[in-house]
Amino acid sequence: MTNQNYMLGALLRIPFQSIVDRIYEELAEAGYSDLRQPHFVVFQHMKPQGVRLIDLAEKAQITKQSMSYLVGYLEKSGYVEKFPDPSDGRAQLICLTEAGKDVENIARSAIAHLQIEWEEIVGEEKMNELFQTLLELVTYIEKDNS
C-alpha cells in the first residue's frame, strides 16, 4: 500500500461532498433552493412505485421519527405525496410528485456533469476502473448485509 496523506474515509467523503455541492448548485439554479442534504436521503431511496416510511428509514439508517419529519417537510413543499398501500390498508406509500421527479432528474444530471468533468481530469480508463471497483465493493457489502 502506498503512503498517502488521506485515509479511505476522506478519499470517499471528499468526492461525495463535491457531488452534493454540485447537486445543490444545479438545484438552486433551477429554483429549488429549499432542499438541504438531509432531504436527499429520501430521494436516494425512492422507488417508482413508491416506498413505505419504515422502509425509507431503514434504508437511510435513521429513525422512523426522523424520516417522518423529512417526508413531512417534502410533502408540505410539494416534492412527495402519500397514497394508501394497496398491499396493506394501514400503511401508506410515499411517491415523488412531478416536482420531486424534476429534483431527481436535476440531481442525476448534476452527477453526470461532474462525472464527465472528472473523466476529463483522470481519463476514461481510470474513471471506468474507479466505477468498477466501487461496484465490486457495493456488491460485496450488500451481499454481506443481506
Structure in words:
The longest helix is centred in the C-terminal third of the chain and has 25 residues, at 98-122. Helix 3 (53-60) packs across helix 4 and helix 5 (98-122) crosses helix 6 (124-144). The protein has six helices and three strands. The chain has helices at 8-29, 37-44, 53-60, 64-76, 98-122, 124-144, and strands at 51-52, 80-85, 88-96. The two termini are 30 Å apart. The radius of gyration is 18 Å and the shape is globular. The chain has 146 residues and is mainly alpha-helical. The mean pLDDT is 92. A three-stranded antiparallel sheet has the order 1-3-2. Strand 2 (80-85) and strand 3 form a beta hairpin. The chain folds into two domains: 1-33 and 98-146, no CATH class; 34-96, Winged helix-like DNA-binding domain superfamily/Winged helix DNA-binding domain (Arc Repressor Mutant, subunit A, Orthogonal Bundle).
Descriptive keywords:
2 domains, mainly alpha, three-stranded antiparallel sheet, Arc Repressor Mutant, subunit A
